[in-house]
Write a structure and sequence with these properties.
442 residues; alpha/beta; N-utilizing Substance Protein B Homolog, Chain A; Rossmann fold; 3 domains; 19 helices; 12 strands; 15% strand
């Protein structure tokens, strides 16, 4: 039995049955079996897990075409074996069809019965790349985009409220691009030139990021296993996420609130920009997530971050007008980071929009009271829905006359400015999807 494909299968089962996040489930399974795996094995497992999770809707449509059994009636093990086989046949040129079929049948022998084995064999032998290509001929544009990009129809319809069909199709296609590994130089321990030389010594190739503190690594694997990472020379962070801290523009000796801080990427970047001088109060709702911020700060040599387990929706009188600047990287539906967390699109529902925007509004209304007069606040999400972004800010400004927009001027990102007041990044080759807005209290 092919242990690599079996580990991929067990990971997909865990994602489905336990609603585990793909990245967490994958890390757990790889750690459990790391003594049996080499780098190539880990790469293939990751390819299968992320590939099947990303393309699930499209793959399931192909299963429906050839199966006389409804998807809900198929055993979860057998369904995921079919998905894995189809992903290899249709989307992976490097795997011969015969290997994909045979290894899937072998898995079906172990995780099903004789009928399951025959069922898997019959369907996979019929599958061809043309089954995917046929979806591009669908006349209805929403259905075509859904099946060719593996995007739920409700997400497409939500995006169409504020964008034309061509832009929506481009956004959906971009959600399937494999993300690049981007790192942020820790200026407290090194500088960009020194880190570049250290990476070259390890034969790690890179290119310059748009922002001066960032490098984009090429063909980087297990980057967090590097001694340079453990020594705190860099942090793995998307440039879009880094841009949020950059726009807040924290300065040495300021007092700053990061109200939704975990895992601490933006919190620690702010501390670096502050030269480790001043104070950052970092909140999160859950103790284990607060610990992540502390661990990141310790690795990077930062001592100005004070963590607190705190609900940002609940008003604290002691913090009224105490902060020079506030970062509100609020909880959101995460539709801007699907290329990193593809399982999000299967977990979210249309009704989640109303629920999450209530939380966002409460955090914004509550935490804005903690800002000093003339203080500045950044509101950000990793979503691309109007309801979570521009609409949220417009409502807030209507009800809070003491706040106004601060014009955003980041020359490197001028292409992403929706207007001078907000930035809307869409996921693509360069960044994840983020909304960023800066406000000032008059």
């Amino acid at each position: 039995m092919d242990i690599v494909r079996e580990i991929a299968l067990k990971t997909l089962y865990k994602i489905d049955k336990e609603e585990a996040y793909s990245n967490i489930a994958l890390d757990e399974k790889i750690k459990e079996n790391k003594h049996k795996l080499d780098e190539r094995d880990i790469g293939f497992i990751s390819e299968i897990v992320y590939g099947v999770t990303t393309w699930r809707l499209t793959i399931d449509e192909m299963i429906k075409k050839y199966s006389n059994i409804r998807l809900k009636k198929i055993s979860p093990w057998i369904l995921n074996i079919l998905r894995m086989g189809i992903y290899q046949i249709v989307f992976l040129d490097k795997v011969p069809k015969s290997a994909a079929v045979n290894e899937s049948v072998n898995l079906a022998k172990r995780y099903g019965h004789k009928g399951s084995r025959n069922f898997v064999n019959a369907i996979l032998r019929k599958i061809e790349k043309q089954d995917y290509e046929a979806f591009f001929k669908i006349e209805n544009p929403v259905e075509r985009i859904s099946k060719t990009t593996s995007m739920p129809v409700w997400i497409i319809e939500e995006l169409l409220k504020e964008n034309d069909i061509q832009k929506v199709e481009k956004i959906c296609k971009a959600s399937n691009i494999k993300p690049k590994v981007t790192i942020r130089v820790n200026s407290l321990k090194t500088n960009k030139h020194e880190l570049e030389n250290l990476l070259k010594e390890k034969n790690i190739t890179f290119q310059e990021g748009k922002l001066e503190d960032f490098l984009i690594l090429e063909k980087a694997k297990n980057i967090e296993q590097l001694d340079l990472f453990e020594q705190g020379y860099f942090t793995v962070q998307d440039e879009g996420a880094g841009l949020i801290a950059k726009i807040l523009a924290p300065r040495p000796n300021e007092v700053i609130l990061d109200a939704c801080s975990s895992p601490g990427g933006k919190t620690t970047y702010m501390a670096e920009l502050m030269e480790n001088k001043g104070k950052i109060i970092a909140w999160d709702l859950h103790p284990h997530r607060v610990k992540l911020v502390e661990e990141n700060a310790e690795r990077l040599g930062i001592h100005i971050i004070k963590t607190e387990c705190q609900d940002a929706t609940i008003y604290q009188e002691m913090y009224k007008e105490k902060f020079d600047k506030i970062l509100l990287d609020v909880p959101c539906l995460g539709i801007g980071v699907l290329k990193r967390k593809p399982d999000i699109k299967w977990k979210r529902r249309p009704e989640d929009i109303a629920e999450i925007t209530q939380i966002q509004q409460k955090i914004l209304e509550t935490c804005s009271q903690y800002l000093k007069p003339n203080g500045q606040m950044v509101y950000a999400t990793c979503s691309i829905f109007y309801a979570e972004n521009d609409q949220m800010i417009e409502k807030f400004l209507e009800n809070n006359q003491a706040f106004r927009y601060v014009k955003i001027d980041i020359p490197q990102m001028k292409d992403y400015l929706e207007n001078s007041n907000t930035i809307q990044l869409y996921q693509g080759e360069e960044t994840d999807g983020f909304f960023i807005c800066k406000l000032q209290k008059i």
